[in-house]
């Protein structure tokens, strides 16, 4: 009986250790942009700085198969936002391909006037990932503010920024 208790305690200690490692790895995923791809090749998963734009991604979490789990956005213009669209730039050598996700409503009750979190939209860049790019750079492609005005990112600036980030 006493040996069984000791084995149970060891098992629980082992499980606790594994959970700590997994939680630490998950929380660091937003800090380190490199995500392994199934073939051993690594794809950089980044987000654009969008320095002159009213909003940009400041943190993102990626899961298995380079799935965008969630993103934290910073609203520098402080206008309330109703909808947003996440875009991505797939970079492979000198080729930069842009894509966009669906127009998404801001989750109910979220204050969008400074920093706020939005859920991921699944594997947005799935088709581009199949082409084995060097990197994928996510960005905010489009917004609609509460007053009805709209904003769109400049594709030329995004392409230039993405190409400079993935070398």
Query: What is the straight-line distance between the termini?
Result: 61 Å
- Strand residue percentage: 35-45%
Overall outline: flat
The average pLDDT is 79
Poorly predicted regions are: 21-38
Number of helical regions: 3
* Tally of domains: 1
Gyration radius (Cα, Å) is 19 Å
Q: Biggest sheet: strands, sense, closure?
A: 6 strands, mixed
Q: Can you write the helix and strand succession as a string?
A: HEEEEEEEHEEH
**Counted beta strands:** 9
Explain this structure:
Helices cover about 25% and strands about 40% of the residues. It has one domain. Mean pLDDT is about 80; it is low at about 20-40. A hairpin with a 2-residue loop joins strand 5 and strand 6 (about 95-105). It is an alpha+beta fold and about 170 residues long. The strands form two sheets. Strands 1, 2, 5, 6, 8 and 9 form a six-stranded mixed β-sheet that branches. The chain has helices spanning about 1-30, 125-130, 155-165; strands at about 35, 40-45, 55-60, 70-75, 80-90, 95-105, 115-120, 135-145, 150.
